[in-house]
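Q: Is it fine to ask for two folds in a single conversation?
A: Yes, each is treated on its own. Send the first.
Q: Here.
A: Result:
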Amino acid sequence: MGIRVLIAEDDEDIRSVLKRYLEAEGFECDEVGTLFDLKKKLSENVYSVVLLDLMFPDGIAMDEIPEMKVSHPETAILIISARDRDLDRIFGIELGADDYITKPFNPREVIARVKAILRRMGKEQKVLKFGKLEIFLEDYLVRYDGKIIEMTAKEFEVLKLLAITPNKVFSREEILDRVWKDEYVSDRVVDVHISAIRAKIGKGWIKTVRGLGYKFSSRGDENDRS
């Protein structure tokens, strides 16, 4: 499971923009447009960060922050509001919000603030990025061009091993030792898994070094995925 962010904002266009930018960075996003739905989502799921507007059709979210921090101490709150007075900022932080951004905002600043909060919480997503290919190291998740690529655990571990050190050649024996450890399998299983990975993300990412083994190419995007 990736890092989850809840976008609580009554403006659908703003929700759409934030969701697009967050998902492009590998975050999983849910969105709500009312205080009622905000409380419902928080009761059903665990979120690392809530992007919180203050004004909703059914109430003012500022009043809910203390209860949210008590009920969901693992969740950071980043207020995004048109209320730009210093007093509002100070009050929001004093109530328990972790950060405060005023509207209009640059979506990239929001992303930067979210990442900063996650670093402080020790929850920063560890991801390798090579062009359109993204490898989320802790979540066993691979995306290409924004789409999730389904992989088995062993396929992911082989890809991760190679991608962490691009251009380093790994022999079949090294890959077996690092991924399969004490399991008794033939070295042919490595070739089978490499073929499966290539079929899913494209042939250009993993190169065969004749007589030696395999290496990961960080320039795989230059090759066709077919």
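Q: Second one now.
A: Result:
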Amino acid sequence: MHSIAVAGHICLDIAPLLSDQARIDPGSLVEVGPLTVTLGGSVANTGGALTSLGMNVFPYATIGDDELGRLLTEKLTEEGFSAPQLSVSPRLATSYSLVIEKEGVDRTFWHHTGANAEFTGAAVDSAQHPLLHIGYPPLLPGLLENNGDTLRHLFARARAAGVTTSLDLAVVDPDSPVGSLDWEAILHSIFGQTDIATPSLDDLTSALGIYQEYSPEGVEALAEQLITQGVAIVAISAGQHGLHLRTASEKRLREGGAVLAALPDSWADRSITVAPLPVDHPVTTNGAGDASTAGLLFGLSRGATPEQAAELAVTCSAVAMNAARPTPQAVSQLSPALASVFYDQGRKERQ
């Protein structure tokens, strides 16, 4: 089983239980339910899902020297992360999000970037792991200077050591400090050193300033654009429209570090769209995209077929929407055919 370094954005998600009457009304006292405090951000969400699936996950991030930072560190240890490598900022507070979510309605985040602004990846010892995943560059200003040079150099250093690089994005708020950056230039620079990219459709359209209705042709065109810019495997999640998986040539996969170089020829030049699994009564959408990324990365690390990896991604997302952890048991219960990905130890030797 491969280990993975998961680095980048981390925070605490602080979520009050809201009733239908909850509102912002100055001068009023509004009754709400109990509060939950959980790990959030790409490092915790994608890393936590990978831990639940069975991978050995090493987290890298930056936190503040404060009570929230100490609580965050404790929670990482409690949830089974291996040797958290957390830099501590002496001047910025630990990042947190207020998650405003009612049942059946997509969530809203009130987010404080905090110490994430100082994350540069300088402390990431990527050569110790076959796979390096970076999450949420739009929320990591320290990686974006000079059109993303810091992130590009981090990935280039990892790839030179034979490491497979993976990138997940986040929605770019046009009214935020990073909203005015040249995202087309940033992504073009980063994708040249990215082996695996798992953005949502909203991530890409917000970064590129594309405002159009969903269409299969539009998603395919975006995936092809990323492949042309150098990415080896692209997985674009599009909510109710499912997941679109697009892969590059056999030659590009062979150049994709330890994980991709071991893939069979059947991964080359593929285009697959997988429908989402139905979730009758979703509890939350928080972390569903990160769980999808985790499913794909786990499938790749296990030598799954493209079809299995894509199915694993959408299944992990469905489990997350049920507010559950994507353990092998939970995934296999929803998609019994995926049990072989977890329990067939001989698959890679037979391929």
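Q: Anything structural to flag on that second result?
A: Two points. The chain has one domain: 3-350. The two ends are 16 Å apart (CA to CA).
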